[in-house]
Amino acid sequence: MRPAIQSVHNLRPLFWFRALAFVIMAAGAAPMFFMRSDSPFLFAALIASFLLVIVSWNLVKPGYTAVEVAVTQILISTDKDEDRSFYLNLPTEELAYFEIRSKSGGLRHDLWLFRETPRGVMRSKTIRLSLYSPAKVDAVRRMLNQVLQDHGRSPVSS
Q1: Where are the alpha helices (DSSP H) in the chain?
Q2: How far apart are CA 105 and CA 56, in angstroms?
Q3: CB-CB neighbours of 134 under 10 Å
Q4: CA 137, CA 8: separation in Å to the nearest integer?
Q5: Residue 152: DSSP 8-state
Q6: Which letter, b or e, does each residue of 45-67 get, where b requires 16 or more Cβ atoms within 10 Å of its Cβ?
Q7: Secondary element (H or E) of residue 68
Q8: Residue 137, Cα to own-chain centre: how many angstroms?
Q9: CA–CA separation, 75 and 139 (whole Å)
């Protein structure tokens, strides 16, 4: 018997990623306080820190995501949610299967849920699992496989 609500989210890693981006930008700007304004190192530090944050941000695409399984629903929350609504709300009995793909060399994963409807199987919007550790990705996989098994469907293999 699974608990009433299971949740996997990335709030702590997202905080640390954003804090690290802030530190990198601060380190790039710090020479402004200790060097002459015409120093080429000053501009190189600013540009390098700015580019490092942009590249890492585009590789990881950080954003809050929570995958929750309640008794009868799969609820996906993101930082793009509108007031009092979920990014995705899917009845558990309609889950046909799911797919998780690694992106950016394993720095992020994308999740798609496939829903059984009278018109056929429909794919959900892309759910970005950025900053999810391999253990959290496995936890999402186990939760969704348990939903499939609870409704008499075959689990998805890794």
Answers
A1: 11-29, 31-34, 40-60, 134-150
A2: 12
A3: 10
A4: 9
A5: T
A6: bbeebeeebeebeeebebebbbb
A7: strand 65-69
A8: 10
A9: 15
* Under-50 pLDDT residues of the chain: 1
Q: What is the rounded distance in angstroms from the CA atom of residue 151 to the CA atom of residue 59?
A: 36
Structural tokens at position 49: 């820190």
How far, in Å, CA of 1 to CA of 111, rounded?
Answer: 25
Cα–Cα distance measured from residue 65 to residue 10, given in angstroms and rounded to the nearest whole number: 6
d(CA 108, CA 9) in angstroms, rounded, equals 13
Structure tokens given for 37: 């304004």
Backbone angles phi, psi at 10, to 5 degrees: -125, 35
Contacting residues for 81 by C-beta, under 8 A, at least 6 apart: 87
Q: Are 86 and 75 in contact (CB under 8 A)?
A: yes
What 3-state class would DSSP assign to 100? strand
Those residues whose C-beta lies under 8 Å from the C-beta of residue 96, and which sit 6 or more positions away, are 114, 115, 116, 121, 153
Distance set, CA 23 to CA 17, 19, 30, 64 (Å): 10, 6, 10, 20
